Amino acid sequence: MKSDRLLSILLLLQTRGRVPAGELAERLEVSRRTVYRDVEALSAAGVPVYAERGRHGGIALLPGFRTDVTGMTADEARALFILAAEGAHTALGLDEALGSALRKVMAALPAPHRPAAELTGRRILVDPDRWMGGPRPSADLDELQSAVLTDLRLRIRYRHSGETRLRTYTVDPYGLVAKAGTWYLVADRRGAPQLFRADRVASATLTDAPVRRRAGVELAEVWRQLRRQVEDRPAGVRVTARIRRDRLDLAVRILGGALTGPPREEPGDQPSGETGDEPGDRPGDEPGWAVIELAYPVVRAVRQLLQFGDSLEVLGPPEARHVMADAAAALTAVYAADPPP
Fold first, then answer.
1. Which portions of the sequence form the region Disordered (predicted)?
2. How many CB atoms lie within 10 A of CB 183?
């Protein structure tokens, strides 16, 4: 609606100062002509807004003008009170600040919106951690946070996965990202983007040198690039397996990114429940099988499937079956021997 758009322009200008008309048009998903018409409407309503042409021009408010009108809708108020529990704010030491900020927001809300916002905060909870994730290694974010907020280069001592020795790097931070409860430092190292897990940073020291980021590149863009590199990593081995259907939901949760597509029915197998019965409802019933496709970087990684025991069988390729057979034989040898005293 036009009224919402006018308020959005006013708040953006109040927050950002001078903003190019093209950026306003892109943010509001309208044309530049519409932006200029909205600016005229604000001016006619008494808002001291003006437009400057030229390369460094834009739309701005007269210096010193402020408005305390929040214009917050009921949905916007509710959205602010859906927050992650024991997550990002705790790690950054901002729990008390968050609570204080929410109390101030609640006081500033229009009276009709307050009950819905308070109820939303009590009835909806966002927990960023995965099931059965176990305790996470602690990460000291103080120095990393200082580096990303003060725009200084950072010297870190870092332990890569599978290594015990520490390596020393000088990096140019873009920012911190929390992904599924794990914190990452996103930085350039020798001009190339790289991810560093915060809990593997043994020490971090700010240097006196200013950060050397690539011009015009922001954190969100670098994160998308690095995430694609992780998610689109080419698979060295494609594996086909069959799994008992009563274990399929668990397998989908655990295997996650290794799955290359949805499970399919094993040829000639009728899914349990199509007759209206669940597995085990009738004597002699056994759950059917489903076929899954997986991708692994190396064939030895197929050993991940051992956790499903005889509820899963690797069908191919042959080298993957050999890895599973060798691993099963090694386990048999371990448990066939007498236990140590």
1. 258-287
2. 21
